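ok trying again, last paste got cut off:
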Amino acid sequence: MSSTQFDALELIEPLLRALAKEGYEQPTPIQEQAIPQVLAGRDLLATAQTGTGKTAAFSLPMLQVLNESKSGGQVRALILTPTRELALQIDESFRNYGRFLKLTSTVVLGGVPVGAQVRALRNKPDIVVATPGRLLDLMNQRHVKLDRVEMLVLDEADRMLDMGFVHDVRKIVAVLPNKRQTMLFSATLPSWVQAVARKFLRADKR
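nice, full thing came through this time. structure:
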């Protein structure tokens, strides 16, 4: 565990207050390394094992960046993840960490009725956490526009860029603005993942 405190990472007071409420005192190594890079606007390729706090490593700085450049009425951040369970966990993290900010998030995933997700998207949340298949369906039905997305995360990137997901991911990324910040987090980084990842990243830090 790092000896650095969260306030040394230049996080804003509402985030520090939310972290205190969650009982977090010190950042993990991945949080200590990733948060400054995301706050600086850099693309990122990060390796982090499950359970090391990688969700906070991208959600905390994303919340801060979005809060500092307020422009509501559109989806500004997109997190793609391979499973329903992970999508729900990430959405809960955004809600917990952002509880003292005026930012909204919603989750889009398969296996459940679509009506509530469509209604949530009509409210134009700042942040969408999604599994690729359901998101593509809603894009094709014109229930969601992603042309103003400023920040993209591929979580579990080794799985997201596997043959099972990569075609859907490419279709989604194709409609995003070229000028955006992209972050890939993965438990493993085999060479083929790095090769595919490079197509999504610009001058990234690892």
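cool. The two ends are 20 Å apart (CA to CA). The beta strands are 44-47, 77-80, 105-108, 127-130, 151-155, 181-186.
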